[in-house]
Amino acid sequence: xxxxxxxxxxxxxxxxxxxxxxxxxxxxxxxxxxxxxxxxxxxxxxxxxxxxxxxxxxxxxxxxxxxxxxxxxxxxxxxxxxxxxxxxxxxxxxxxxxxxxxxxxxxxxxxxxxxxxxxxxxxxxxxxxxxxxxxxxxxxxxxxxxxxx
Length: 149
What we know:
Layout: E1 11-14, E2 17-19, E3 24-29, H1 38-41, E4 45-51, H2 60-70, E5 79-84, H3 90-109, H4 123-141
Antiparallel strand pairs: 1-2, 3-4, 4-5
């Protein structure tokens, strides 16, 4: 899929996430952007379609997370569509699209962060805060007008 990679190799991302070549479909389309007259003649942009809903290499947790992380790039059927037209050649655009897909699946495969546990301030920290607050209040009160006595 990418430069220097055979098209029949699966990409192993983690223990519960791998991309099989059967789950990928590539379409080459005409690209906008730089390229001069070449852009009107050659289909260099890549539209990579990854069937996340039917992918055998994804666990249920990763599958749900990758579809939610894909956002608008995911269809209702769970197919993730990545368009790559950053470069002028098909090979570089193919590699770019596959790298972006791999990055997305790797991000989805990361373990979820630990939930934050609420903590209460210590009694000493509350007292220190109130003491400094009272001190600032006193300073500000003393900034009033000076009497002429």
